[in-house]
Structures
1.
Amino acid sequence: TILVLDFGSQYTHLITRRLRELNVYSEMLPCTQKLADLSWKPKGIILSGGPYSVYSDDAPHVDPAVFDAGVPILGICYGLQELAWHFGKNVLAGEKREYGHADLKIARHGDGEAGGLVDKLFSGVEEDMNVWMSHGDKLSHLPEDWTTIATTSNAPFAGIAHTKKPYYGIQFHPEVTHTKNGTAVLKNFAVDICQARTDWTMGKFVDQEIERIRKLVGPKGQVIGAVSGGVDSTVAAKLMKEAIGDRFHAVLVDNGVLRLNEAKQVKETLTQGLGIKLTVIDASERFLGRLKGVTDDPEKKRKIIGNTFIEVFQETAKKIAEDAQGSDKAGEIEWLLQGTLYPDVIESISFKGPSATIKTHHNVGGLLEGMHLKLIEPLRELFKDEVRELGTNLGIPEDLVWRHPFPGPGIAIRILGEVTPEQVRIAREADFIFIEEIKAAGLYRKISQAFAALMPVKAVGVMGDKRVHDQVIALRAVETTDFMTADWYPFEFEFLKRVSRRIVNEVNGVCRVVYDITSKPPGTIEME
Ligand code: XMP
């Protein structure tokens, strides 16, 4: 195991992620972790980056036992400065801050006395490396027994190494994908220098996580969580089911703006397929009732749906807790499960300061308020592709594991203008046909997200010799890796023709179909 001590950089989780990709197990703990309190001995220690200056009075420092542990240490960014501070107190505020790309030159020392040791970190890596920097402070000079192993034009000590011990410091971030060959550097450290085992797998993650959940929740504790039929909430729910069985209570709120037949399908998959204890609450009327009359304010739709969801969920939670009281599994519900992923965690860190809200995606942020529940987030260290791998590992059907994301406010933000039962019917039927055709054409996995949206305008058409005046469906399909930027999918004309024909023929109330060819930016993925 590699111990990652976290000084609060927004990239720290990426270090554990990269190590996992190398099949090396790592654990991330706060920078103040006392080594004596650990029940295991790390094979190596990584000190992460962080937003502080090591020389300031309130700067965090590691347990000095780290330097007596007799294991290799790698300091990244703040971690490098922490090493330099420990060995010589020689860190200064830099005159120039350095953010973004930098050209790193590796300084090799050859086979000489210390060369064998200090060259190990960059072994096999090209001389010139394009790296990602993000720092303000720098070293004034090297501490005793340290040498330079890499430089940039702005940072003469971009890489340093101890000449007698396997201690290394790098100013750049090897864990971000912007740093080319960053993984090779981490591999040199973890596998070659620390000799960490490379036998970690997702199967092991499952076992560890189940153990962790059992310990956290205790032998009687009960957990409640909302499921949507999406991959994140389903994987989180299945993990809970494996860990604590029927002491996990899943709730599916049918808000009336789910996809066609979705509530029914999710219920079948979760209960029959995965054995999860699920309560389905049909609150369509309450949601649609409140959405009535909201015509041109997408944020208001989001708010109504978010708040109504919280209300319905809380009522349901109360009922479930009351029922559980009388059973032999007494003890009220103390925990709320959330399928938060790592990108959500980063987003909430980087948007801590004032920032313009383009859309309020986290519609249920207020769920915890007034519920006296503690949060349990088993996926918070994982990325989407890892969650999919985990889902497959837990026996969740392929179809669900590869499902496109679906927003909390559902098709309400895909029905431009007022959301009425009739508009919901039209949008649902058109969407169903579009997705069915995408699957039939074998394109579902290539496309990141696709849906049909309903335009609140009428156009003229001619059907069966009769003039009609009906609505317009806009198809949207995008490819993206991070959902922050996206490009529209280049369908073949034959495909679009087929979908258009089917929608106009099969969906009552539609006489035209258009394809949205706007990228993000300037568009967004959803229409509202
Ligand atoms: P946009 O439209 O902002 O969408 O380009 C990016 C991703 O976020 C999803 N999305 C939402 N998800 N609640 C959600 O849970 C929302 O209010 C919401 N709005 C957008 C969208 O589907 C896409 O995957």
2.
Amino acid sequence: ERIPVICIDGPTASGKGTLAAELASRLGYHLLDSGALYRLVGLAAEREGLSTTEADLREPAHAERLGRLAAGLDVRFTPGKTWLEGEDVTEALRAEPAGMAASRVSAVPQVRAALVDLQLQMRHLPGLVADGRDMGTVIFPGAPLKIYLTASAEQRAQRRHKQLISKGIPAILDDLLADLKARDARDMNRAHAPLKPAEDAVLLDNSELDIEQSVQFVLNRWHGQQ
Ligand code: C5P
């Protein structure tokens, strides 16, 4: 508990990943991208031929199977890269299908439970910046600083659109907006660890802020309470 953790929770495409990575780099802290873990489970399921449809996930035996898959993930992180069973999956992880699969498998309690220890183990000196949906509510409830990052759905869809187009990936704004709203709804309404601000979280709406302004906001809070 003496190792500091800064939690950055919030909906999809709110800029959590960018903010968390920037904070970790400036503070010299470790970084936990918890979404990557759920994306890895989605990807691993697909590769094993295990269904991730919502109907199948409601089957207790199938939920157990996915929980075992999550518990036995053969994953390795190297700077800037993620490896699943020895294969570089960095690109595949960021793609939309992995995100949608992640959003479905992350509603399975057995999957969430299987990933708890892995996340707790990321807490090393000098500190950790943890990015996700339930960092402040479930995984690190005692964290000294919790940020709940939001932006309007339209803003978030536009940002994601720009990001994809700049990478040469074709994208349709309306489709992105619809996917994003579907994912928000699923993340906020699930029974286990739903997306919501922790009671002691600081709300930060970055609709009108650039990255530097968001970074400064968090650093000011952090230094102010140290
Ligand atoms: O943040 P990212 O888009 O990579 O997360 C992918 C999905 O993983 C989210 O839509 C969410 O359903 C799930 N997730 C979660 N808990 C976390 C992080 C991500 O349920 N701590």
